[in-house]
Structure formats: C-alpha cells, structure tokens
Write a structure and sequence with these properties.
The chain is an alpha+beta fold and 315 residues long. The protein has a single domain, classed as Phosphatase 2c, domain 1 (4-Layer Sandwich), CATH 3.60.40. 34% of the residues lie in helices and 28% in strands. The strands form 3 sheets. Strands 1, 3, 4, 5, 6, 7, 12 and 13 form an 8-stranded mixed sheet that branches. Strands 2-15-14-8-9 form a 5-stranded antiparallel sheet. Strand 8 and strand 9 form a beta hairpin. Helix 1 runs antiparallel to helix 2 and helix 3 crosses helix 4. The longest helix is centred in the middle third of the chain and has 23 residues. The N terminus is likely disordered.
C-alpha cells in the first residue's frame, strides 16, 4: 500500500490530489484506487475518486477499492468492526478489499455469455459466498465488515449494487434541473423492523437494537461467532441484497460511503455537496474529500470513507 501511495504521489501534481494524499498517509487504511478518466472504446466514460479519514476513532477500520477490466468496473467500500472492543475489524475489511473483486472477475471470466440477470444475481452472490468461505477458514469469529459493491457494465450501462450492512450506495440524477437522489441499497440494521423480524424468525433476538445485544448490523462478512453454516437463514446473514439500475442520460454520479457519512448527513445533503464540487471541478477525488470533511465538521463519531463515481456520455 505504501508503494501504491508513493506512485500516486509522484504522478499527482494538482492540489486536490495532494490533499487526497495527505488524508491517506495519516491513516492505516487500504484504498486501492484509480481516479483518472478511463480510455475505452465505449462511449460511456466515468471518473472516480475517494477519500478516507480515521476521524475521532482511535483506529481505522474502513477500506475501499476500485478495479476494472475492459468491460467492467468494480468499486467497493468496507467498514470493519470488532464484536469485542479489543478486536479490530480492519483485518476483515482489508481481506475483503484484497479478494472480493478477484472473485467477481473470476466468475465473470467463466461465463460464455453475459446477460443482465445472470451477472446481477449469480455472479455477485457466488463472489460473496467465496469471500465468506475464505473468512470462515481464517476464523474471523469476533470481527466482521460491511460491504457495499458497485459493478458497472460499460456495454449495457447497467449498474449492479450488492450490499451487506449499513454502508450505502446513493445515485444522484437530474429531475427538473435539480439534483435528486435514489438509494440503491438498504441499510441492514438490527433495529429496523424488517431485519428484526427476520432475525427472530431465524431464532435470534434483538436487544437494544443489536443482534443478541452485541452487533448493530444484521448482515456482514465474518462475525462467525454469531453465525451458523446456513447463511441464507442465519440471524446474521452473509447474503447481500442486490439491486440493478439501468443508467440513463439524467444520471450524474454515484456515492458509496460508510456510515461515518450517513450518521450525520442525509442522501440529499451528500448529493448536493458533491454536485456543487463536481460542477466546479469535475474532480471526484475533490468531491470525496469535501464530503468526508463535511462529515467531520458535523461531528461524526466514526471512520469516514467515501467513493464518488462521475458518469459521462450516458446518451
């Protein structure tokens, strides 16, 4: 990771990228990322960037990543946690950031044909299952992580979102010349009615808005001390919820962020801020940095990580 940061530092000359590096080098974090305009044969293009900050926490447990093939782009944010306060969830977030995209691209590479329904459901589900299996073999009993993944097919302009936990994916689009938002993921919190009912049906209890009085999120990678082998009916599930969005000309950008942002900002708050920055700079790294700084200014108590993807040529 230090090598990667050095490489960015030598390449990055403008102010916004320098600011981004300042945020990074003060963290113990993995955010492997590309934030330049992608040169492809497809008319659709996108810029992406991220920012990450430890905030008021004593340790950093977030991670994020971006990887691409000729046809697909993969972005993700991960928010690690420890059930025991002595445990640091960064290990699980780090492992997912290193491996989950590999499993997605492996599954894509095995397909002879790519149709939307196959890619949307089976590919992402299989990748998450492989990631969960690997973590189980490593024995992640009291640590875990959320995962919010965006997989973009540049040919069909289809955006697939897979989500576990309370990180969030928000799409910003134009409606009557104003920026509006659509949530592409649902927060998986134990205290929410739907999740609480599911947990109880699986034989679990919700106490003080936590699974077994311990874990605030109800779907994660890891946390095997609260799971059985049957992930589809477990009180803490590892199966992500998946949504699909066909991108159109009014779609402007995507925000992926951990709950350090959403604890203090609404979807609309975040989108309005990001849109203001992008209209001035078309620099998603700067937009991510400003979003993180705004969350800090609003006194968030968590680590803060944000990924911004700006869409272009969506005709």
């Amino acid at each position: 990771m230090l090598i990667y940061m050095d490489k960015i530092m030598f390449k990055s000359k403008n102010k916004s990228q320098f600011l981004h590096i300042v945020v990074l080098v003060n963290l113990i974090s993995i955010c492997s990322f590309s934030h330049t305009m992608e040169e492809t044969t497809f008319p659709m293009q996108q810029k992406s960037g991220f920012a990450s900050e430890k905030g008021r926490r004593s340790t950093m447990e977030d991670a994020c990543t971006h990887h691409e093939s000729e046809r697909f782009n993969f972005w993700a944010v991960y928010d690690g946690h420890g059930i025991d306060k002595k445990e640091n969830g960064y290990k699980v977030a780090n492992e997912a950031a290193n491996k989950l995209h590999q499993y997605v691209f492996e599954e894509l590479g095995q397909l002879k044909t790519l149709d939307q329904s196959t890619m949307n459901k089976n590919i992402l589900l299989k990748a998450f299952q492989k990631m969960e299996t690997e973590l189980r073999q490593q024995g992640s009993m009291s640590t875990g992580s959320t995962a919010t993944v965006a997989l973009l097919d540049k040919v069909t302009k289809t955006l697939n979102i897979a989500n576990l936990g309370d990180s969030r994916a928000v799409l910003a689009h134009l409606k009557k010349r104003q920026i509006k938002t659509t949530a592409l993921s649902t927060d998986h919190k134990a205290g929410k009615k739907r999740e609480a009912e599911r947990i109880r049906k699986a034989g679990g209890i919700v106490f003080r808005n936590r699974v077994s009085g311990i874990l605030a999120v109800s779907r994660t990678l890891g946390d095997f001390g609260l799971k059985t082998e049957k992930s589809d009916i477990d009180k803490v599930m590892s199966e992500p919820e998946i949504s699909v969005r066909q991108l159109g000309p009014n779609d402007r950008f995507l925000i992926l962020a951990c709950d350090g942002v959403w604890d203090v900002m609404t979807n609309q708050d975040a989108a309005t801020l990001v849109n203001t920055v992008l209209e001035k700079t078309h620099n998603p790294t700067q937009a991510a940095y400003d979003l993180v700084q705004e969350a800090l200014a609003r006194n968030t108590n968590d680590n803060i990580t944000a990924v911004i993807v700006e869409f272009q040529n969506l005709q």
